[in-house]
């Protein structure tokens, strides 16, 4: 298969003489409905047009029937979160020749006279919030955001405000190169109340740095009412993150999250981390959500209810598990998680009672795990805490 991908803007393209001749010699073309309106006058009379729309399976079916090269028109730079990448993933052996145009983010940055050296771009177009969340946690200087109908400037502004990122302003480009082209610099408060043209993109520009301690003070977390000491203490918490290896894994389960302190610190250290946090005490959900807002940590998946009654197969398999609570059923918990463990999954616990230490070791024996790290931490007036890390036995 041969594809010629031509990036175009939001206006009648200024094709080169060579491109125009190539189009006259071709028969099969593809692109969105908007692209067709922009290029149709350049196409030969007896052309075939394959519209790029859902379901994509029908689009690919049309491509696979083609016996001649296909010319595809795509917005901006097809190599930048664009259709060339989609085709490369779908047809790794195809010949794909791409002629890029400016991306919408580049055009917005140029229009706003922005230094693009520090620009980092993410896409929420048809995607989750994950990439934007991670970039916000890192507090990048300038964040380009490719939007869609639902994740638009309004909802993006609301999300930033929800998690305390009012240290950014928003640059918005609407209908760039179109008849209703408009560029604005807005406060997040203002943007959160506005409606925008359906064709838009955003740059978030940091105006000041939001300071968050490396190791949040225990007293600064919202905790359980009447139980201020019911939290993984900061020195223990940071050692726990080391045991969980949070900088080098992708998915962590936090079983019995309580205040969510471990989940929040883990996500702050690695914004790309997927965290699934389990808890049965209903009041803890609001506590975790409040702590997420305090420290700018969106994107933690909260699962409420008795862990022993959960269908664990519906969740992404963990690379690291932290056991923050087990209801006195620690050995049973090991049997519960055994079917979803990956070969490299580690299990970590902070145990106050010697009975919990012994139950952890017994649980490891039941599922073929070995303790590889064990530390005892003691500070202030608190009881000593034993930290244990276990991994699967190597045959």
Characterize the structure shown.
Helices cover 30% and strands 25% of the residues. By secondary structure, it is α/β, with parallel strands linked by helices. The chain folds into three domains: 2-101, Tetrapyrrole methylase, N-terminal domain (Cobalt-precorrin-4 Transmethylase, domain 1), CATH 3.40.1010; 105-206, Tetrapyrrole methylase, C-terminal domain (Methyltransferase, Cobalt-precorrin-4 Transmethylase, Domain 2, 2-Layer Sandwich), CATH 3.30.950.10; 218-392, Rossmann fold (3-Layer(aba) Sandwich), CATH 3.40.50. The strands form three sheets. A seven-stranded mixed beta sheet has the order 13-12-11-14-15-17-16, sandwiched between helices. A five-stranded parallel beta sheet has the order 3-2-4-1-5, sandwiched between helices. Strand 2, helix 2 (33-39) and strand 3 form a beta-alpha-beta unit. Helix 9 (234-244) packs across helix 10 (261-269) and helix 12 (330-337) packs parallel to helix 13. The protein is elongated, with a radius of gyration of 26 Å. The mean pLDDT is 94.
């Amino acid at each position: 298969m041969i594809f010629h991908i031509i990036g175009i803007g939001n206006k009648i393209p200024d094709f080169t003489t060579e491109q125009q001749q190539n189009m006259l010699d071709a028969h099969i073309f593809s692109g969105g409905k908007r692209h067709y309106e922009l290029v149709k006058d350049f196409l030969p009379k007896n052309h075939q047009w394959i519209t790029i729309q859902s379901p994509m399976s029908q689009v690919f079916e049309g491509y696979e029937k083609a016996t001649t090269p296909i010319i595809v028109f795509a917005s901006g730079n097809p190599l930048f979160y664009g259709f060339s990448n989609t085709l490369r993933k779908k047809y790794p052996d195809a010949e794909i020749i791409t002629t890029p145009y400016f991306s919408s983010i580049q055009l917005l940055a140029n229009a706003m006279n922005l230094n693009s050296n520090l620009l980092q771009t993410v896409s929420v177009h048809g995607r989750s919030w994950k990439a934007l969340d991670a970039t916000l946690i890192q507090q990048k200087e300038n964040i380009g955001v490719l939007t869609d109908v639902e994740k638009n400037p309004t909802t993006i502004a609301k999300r930033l405000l929800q998690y305390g990122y009012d240290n950014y302003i928003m640059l918005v480009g609407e209908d760039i190169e179109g008849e209703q082209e408009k560029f604005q610099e807005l406060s997040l408060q203002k943007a959160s109340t506005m409606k925008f043209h359906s064709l838009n993109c955003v740059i978030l520009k940091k105006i000041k740095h939001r300071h968050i301690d490396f190791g949040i003070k225990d007293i600064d977390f919202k905790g359980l009412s009447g139980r201020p000491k019911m939290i993984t203490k900061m020195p223990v918490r940071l050692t726990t993150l080391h045991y969980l290896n949070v900088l080098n894994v992708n998915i962590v389960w936090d079983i019995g999250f309580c205040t969510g302190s471990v989940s929040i610190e883990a996500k702050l250290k690695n914004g790309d981390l997927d965290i699934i946090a389990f808890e049965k005490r209903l009041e803890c959900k609001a506590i975790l959500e409040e702590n997420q807002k305090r420290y700018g940590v969106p994107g933690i998946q909260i699962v409420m209810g008795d862990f022993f009654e959960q269908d664990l197969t519906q969740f992404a398999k963990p690379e690291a598990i932290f056991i923050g609570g087990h209801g006195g059923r620690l050995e049973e918990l090991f049997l519960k998680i055994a079917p979803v463990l990956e070969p490299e999954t580690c299990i970590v616990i902070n145990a106050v009672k010697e009975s919990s230490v012994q139950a952890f070791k017994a649980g490891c024996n039941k599922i073929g795990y070995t303790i590889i790290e064990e530390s005892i931490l003691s500070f202030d007036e608190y009881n000593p805490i034993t930290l244990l890390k276990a991994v699967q036995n190597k045959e």
